[in-house]
Amino acid sequence: MPHQSALTRKLLTFVALSDLDIETLARFFQRRRSFLAGHEMIYQGEKDASAFILASGWAYSYKLLASGERQIVDFQVPGDFLGLRSILFRTSDHNIEAITRIEASEVLASDILDAFSHAPRLATAILWAASRDEAMVVEHLVNLGRRSAEERVAHLFLELGTRLKLVGLDDENGFDCPLTQYHLADALGLSAVHVNRVLRNLREDGLVTFQKARVVFHDFEGLKALSGFDTGYLDQDGPLLR
Amino acid sequence: MPHQSALTRKLLTFVALSDLDIETLARFFQRRRSFLAGHEMIYQGEKDASAFILASGWAYSYKLLASGERQIVDFQVPGDFLGLRSILFRTSDHNIEAITRIEASEVLASDILDAFSHAPRLATAILWAASRDEAMVVEHLVNLGRRSAEERVAHLFLELGTRLKLVGLDDENGFDCPLTQYHLADALGLSAVHVNRVLRNLREDGLVTFQKARVVFHDFEGLKALSGFDTGYLDQDGPLLR
DNA sequence: CGAGCATTTGAGTCCACTCAATAGTGGTGG
DNA sequence: CCACCACTATTGAGTGGACTCAAATGCTCG
């Protein structure tokens, strides 16, 4: 089952799993589902939602305001666990929509709760995965609160590049990226028009280009310096439980 | 042990705990500590940090940027669990500083990991608590990304009021609040000068006052309408595990 | 090959910023 | 006990980054 390798590998870097843990985890990959681009996989107010493990494709999680505005919280790429919070809360407090066509495994609330009863190391690994997600949200908060538009865009591209590299979906100088400028705007607290201008600046400064659904880094170090990007919140220190 | 009631009560609304769970949880309250105002309880880069359960006083968690700017992620009030993410990651990715004098219980990494091995329902409850924290961070993200300065301030006061009410630290028309305008600014992605102007506007519009370390609501419904505040992300639906 | 979406650019506006200066407040020590 | 110092709050003036509105161009896919 090659599609489960990304998540499993991530978890193994954190906790050494027993045979029982591995077996329990394997059950998470039983229910294969696919979704069309634009499909709402999870929606605000949904009761007893499922979670999913992304095998291929991109999604994004977001909240809608009364005004109709949208704030994107995070993007999900292959290997990511999505909707965990929707399981822990009886009713989901956010939406998740497929950006591209998606292949995923559906994980039921009962799968998770069983894992907690019978596979404590796996449970620890899941809590760790949730904490890592929270660390990403925190970094996005810093991005919105204290960085300029140029810095925000640069930071987002570097984060996505790093995350995709971890699952082998990057290449020498960049990565394929199905986002629109509206996605970037709603993730970064900017208007789409301004995102467009910022992209032009970054391109003209020889830092990155984002065109034709591809991000290409031209000056990786320059981008890091500009945005203050530090991989700390994505990196691992080696297993907590051996 | 009256100081443990707030957290324990919160957890019990989510998961019915067994006697063993309760006993394990009780161990979290063994190591009583106190800290002076301004003390750094947890700092970025700290290895093998402890977590804490706040008995009294306020703290705030934040990240520092290379530029020296500060982004406050959340405020912690009595009953809150703080530093959980510092335990799951070997090295802490954020700082937590005491705002007032603090009484707290220190929770070691081993306490948490033991709980995961031996008390699965408690483990589930801890994951739920972590998810609730993440939901708050997400709401702060929405605040920064898509709300105006007036809306942000109003939203923060409503959230703090609601959280304090849950632990009985509010009163008829407001709550005691040890924050400075600099704290508000760094939590809301604004300058302290602008926060001051916004507070004047809200006061002159008869909505809230924030003076002399006290927040007083004058038009609760008006504030809610202004900020689009919805308690959903703080509320509970009743126990997931019975 | 049009229809709908996405991108790009211009013009003008405004929200929140910075810099600067003045009060108020509380704690400390001589 | 009061003088002082550091911190916090307040207000004014001027600036600028990001916004909105508007229009033109490009792209893709049914």
TrEMBL record, chains A, B:
Residues annotated as domain Cyclic nucleotide-binding: 13-109
Protein name stated in the entry: Crp/Fnr family transcriptional regulator
Keywords tagged on the record: DNA-binding, Transcription, Transcription regulation
Gene3D superfamilies (alphabetical): Jelly Rolls, Winged helix-like DNA-binding domain superfamily/Winged helix DNA-binding domain
SUPFAM superfamilies (alphabetical): cAMP-binding domain-like, Winged helix' DNA-binding domain
Statement: the UniProt record of this protein carries the keyword DNA-binding: yes
Segments forming domain HTH crp-type: 147-221
Organism: Marivita lacus
InterPro entries: cNMP-bd_dom, cNMP-bd_dom_sf, HTH_CRP, RmlC-like_jellyroll, WH-like_DNA-bd_sf, WH_DNA-bd_sf
UniProt xrefs under Pfam families: cNMP_binding, HTH_Crp_2
Record SMART domains: cNMP, HTH_CRP
